């Protein structure tokens, strides 16, 4: 039989690292009181029949600490960009000036800070779900190998290795969330 089963833990690790990287990008998009071009990164615009990041339909600038501007290249997309920003949950009210969209960043009040910590928690939960999906894929590979004839001891060994990897990454997500929530709540 196939007692030489080897689970590709490097692949599982790489995919879990991808979930963490995505979480860091989403956390960077949460504003903490200062304007930043990265806060617009997760926002997608329906441009030319496909979802496109904002930085691919216009130039994003931060001319002052409380202002972000987007110079949209195609005048026909200005309304779509504005709509995408309004629906993004950032809590920013875009102001139009021709093809330039100005985003004044309001001071964060206590209520908005609490909302942002909830958004951060949602991002963290998405990352946890992604990590658990990677775990499920690994467990499915182990089950398939068991059907192909690996021993029960090997099965348990691989399952515990996948679970340990999952626990490590879930802990990283929780730590990142705690740090981001602390940063948001800082006045």
UniProtKB/TrEMBL annotation:
For this entry, list what GO says about its biological process.
cytoplasmic translational termination
Q: Which residues form the Ribosome recycling factor domain?
A: 23-185
* Annotated compartments: Cytoplasm
What InterPro entries does the entry give? Ribosome_recyc_fac, Ribosome_recyc_fac_dom, RRF_sf
* Keywords from the named record: Cytoplasm, Protein biosynthesis
Q: Which GO terms describe its molecular function?
A: ribosomal large subunit binding
SUPFAM superfamilies reported for this sequence: Ribosome recycling factor, RRF (SSF55194)
Task performed by this protein:
Responsible for the release of ribosomes from messenger RNA at the termination of protein biosynthesis. May increase the efficiency of translation by recycling ribosomes from one round of translation to another.
Q: Which family does the record claim for this protein?
A: Belongs to the RRF family.
Protein's name according to its UniProt entry: Ribosome-recycling factor
This protein's species is Ponticoccus litoralis
């Amino acid at each position: 039989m196939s007692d030489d089963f080897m689970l590709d833990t490097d692949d599982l690790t790489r995919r879990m690292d991808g979930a963490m990287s995505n979480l860091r990008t989403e956390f960077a998009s949460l504003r903490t009181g200062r304007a930043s071009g990265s806060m617009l990164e997760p926002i997608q615009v329906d441009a030319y029949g496909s979802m496109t990041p904002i930085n691919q339909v216009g130039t994003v600038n931060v001319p002052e600490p409380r202002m972000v501007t987007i110079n949209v290249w195609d005048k026909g997309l200005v309304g779509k960009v504005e709509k995408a920003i309004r629906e993004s949950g950032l809590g920013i009210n875009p102001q139009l000036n021709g093809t330039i969209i100005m985003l004044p960043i309001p001071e964060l009040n206590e209520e908005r800070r609490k909302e942002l910590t909830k958004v951060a928690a949602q991002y963290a939960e998405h990352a946890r779900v992604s990590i658990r999906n990677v775990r499920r894929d690994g467990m499915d590979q182990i089950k398939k190998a068991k059907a192909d004839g690996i021993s029960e001891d090997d099965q348990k060994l691989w399952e515990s290795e996948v679970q340990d990897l999952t626990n490590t990454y879930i802990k990283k997500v929780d730590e990142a969330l705690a740090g981001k929530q602390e940063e948001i709540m800082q006045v």
